[in-house]
Amino acid sequence: GEALEVNREVNCVTDFIHGCEDQLQKLKKQKEKGLLYGIPISIKDQINCKGHISSGGMVKFLGQVKEEDSVIVQVLKHQGGIPFVKTNVPQTMINYDCSNPIFGQTLNPLNPQKSPGGSSGGEGALIAGGGSILGIGSDVAGSIRLPSSFCGLCGLKPTGNRISPAGCSDRPFVLTVTGMLGPMARDVDSLALCMKALLCQEMFQLDPTVPPIPFNDQVRLRGSPM
Question: What family is this protein classified in (predicted)?
């Protein structure tokens, strides 16, 4: 409900992920409760979800419904998280604003005259507006960090190849800097919990190219960079 409200005001959601209610019912029956049990999670447009498109704000991708969940979505679900909406991006995702010809302009909920930043702008706007408590964005040159800054949130661009990018729709050209998926939320503890949940056996098995290094709580508690 909150997400719908925020979306009406700032136009940040591109799609609602069907089946999230069924997933919650299924989770309730499981003995093992994951680290993200029952948490609704918003995901950036380019992160593939079975039965949905990943448009990148480009008309040419509108007909391409994805056959399966990306690795990150599989891991979030494994940890009990519930991906429930996909969020807006600028066309091609190489822009610090958040507008495209399909879904239009996303506004900043703190000030509708301003941009929420990009390219994870829909995430920034939805979380800052109170429509989501945890989101997954992606960052090559600031695409998590800028919207987090513009919207007064916390965001993390993890080290290259720390989280599996498998099953995410790439930008239409090759970049020399490693793009990374990463969490966005209202506080650092939420980012840490999300990273801890993602860096699990399930991810290392689904994508053997990711170094199997679990989250180090000690490093975080020392106040050193994660």
Answer: Belongs to the amidase family.
Q: Which of 55, 70, 120, 143 is catalytic?
A: 143
Known catalytic residue: 44?
Answer: yes
Question: 33-80, pLDDT tens digit by residue?
Answer: 899 999 999 999 999 999 999 999 999 999 999 999 999 999 999 999
For domain 2-222, say whether CATH 3.90.1300.10 is its number: yes
The one catalytic residue among 42, 44, 120, 132: 44
Q: Whole-prediction pTM value?
A: 0.94
119 among known catalytic residues: yes
Question: Quick one: how many helices (H) and strands (E) in the chain?
Answer: 8, 8
- Cα angle 208-212-214, degrees, rounded to a multiple of 5: 145
Out of 119, 138, 164, 169, pick the active-site residue. Answer: 119
List the chain domain ranges: 2-222
28 carries an active-site annotation: no
